[in-house]
Amino acid sequence: MKLSSLSQVQLEGCLDTVSKNPNDLTLLLNVQTCFHQSDLLDRAIEFNQTSSGNSWFVITGVIVSIFIQLFISIHSFITFIFKDKHNSMVSKEVNYLKESFAFINNKFNQLLEDLKNLIITENSDMKNLQGRLNKNGDIRREIDNLFCKVNDLVDESNQMKNFIYSNLNEKSTTIAILPPKELPKPSPKPKEPSFDISTAQGRAKWKEYINKSMQSKSMQDKPGQKPMQKPMQKPIQKPIQKPLQNNKILTSIDAKNHENENHPLRYCDVAKYGDNKKFKRVFIPARGWVSMKQFELEESIHGSSSMVSPC
After folding, report:
1. Which keywords describe this protein according to UniProt (predicted)?
2. Positions in the chain whose pLDDT score sits under 50
3. Residue from 125, 158, 131 nearest 144 by CA
4. For site-directed labelling of 285, which of 37, 68, 133, 236 has its Cα 20 to 30 A away?
């Protein structure tokens, strides 16, 4: 049967596509499908040439042939994808069987070697036993050792048989041959303590925990250990910044107290009035804001000429 040029092009492209399939049965089916597609296309072209150009049969035939070709192409593509996945699964199973057979063969060879060694040893032991028996010697210990060796060989054979039976349905060679080792359990992380500061008992526990933490940090500094010597640097003298004019609390404090926060400060040096009004609170360097009532209570206890307590 002579095909048209369009049908020949379609047939060559289809055959070139399906020829890459390694499966013989699928290849034959795809070749038959290609010839069927070319036949349908050739008939549609012949029908189109014989019929009139304005006939709706021509349009219907072309549309039907296109849909049929699309359906067949999609079916062939899906079949090819599923066959490829199936072939890959079969290949993995074959590789697994090869590795399992090699492993079992190695175990079997080891078992044969042990059996040969056992036969040689037992022959030697039997000769020794026969010699001692002829001399009326005690051979009970040697007989016990002989039975122990035979029992060990039987146990090893049973382990080999159980291993083969247990791995018949396995899919992973790594799990079958080398079982995974258990990971070491991580050490439990100590929980951070929690305190309910809304209660007096919770606040007391919180203060106790803070004090213990500070003591443990101070104990880390050993008395015999020399501190690290930092390179000598020339001290940088920063200019003393004058307080703002609207800051009535700090204007009366001596400027020497700003040079170093650890400089001693007496109760009488702290200003208590400004614009003929008594302050509600005062600022103590290295301590912070203190209410005037608390400050006057401390001053009455320690005296106005005493140094201000840093805490």
Report:
1. Membrane, Transmembrane, Transmembrane helix
2. 171-177, 231, 238, 240-261
3. 125
4. 236
Quick check: helix, strand or coil at residue 176? Answer: helix
SS3 content of the chain, % helix, strand, coil (to 5): 60, 5, 35
Tens-digit pLDDT profile for residues 168-223: 555 444 444 455 566 677 666 667 777 787 888 888 888 888 888 787 766 665 55
Q: Is 7 exposed, middle or buried (0-12, 13-18, 19+ CB in 10 A)?
A: buried
Q: Compute CA 54 distance to the chain's CA centroid, rounded to the nearest angstrom.
A: 69
Q: List the one residue out of 15, 43, 41, 8 whose CA is nearest residue 30.
A: 15
Nearest 5°: CA angle at 234, between 230 and 236?
Answer: 115
Element at 36 (helix H, strand E): helix 24-50
User: For residue 283, which phi and psi values (nearest 5 degrees)?
Assistant: -105, 125
- The string of DSSP letters for 265-281 reads -BGGGS--EETTEE-SE
- One-letter amino acid at 262 equals N
* Residue 246 confidence (pLDDT): 45
- Token pair of 187 as six digits: 């050490």
Whole-number Å distance between alpha carbons of 82 and 120 = 57
Looking at residue 266, its pLDDT comes to 81
DSSP 251: T
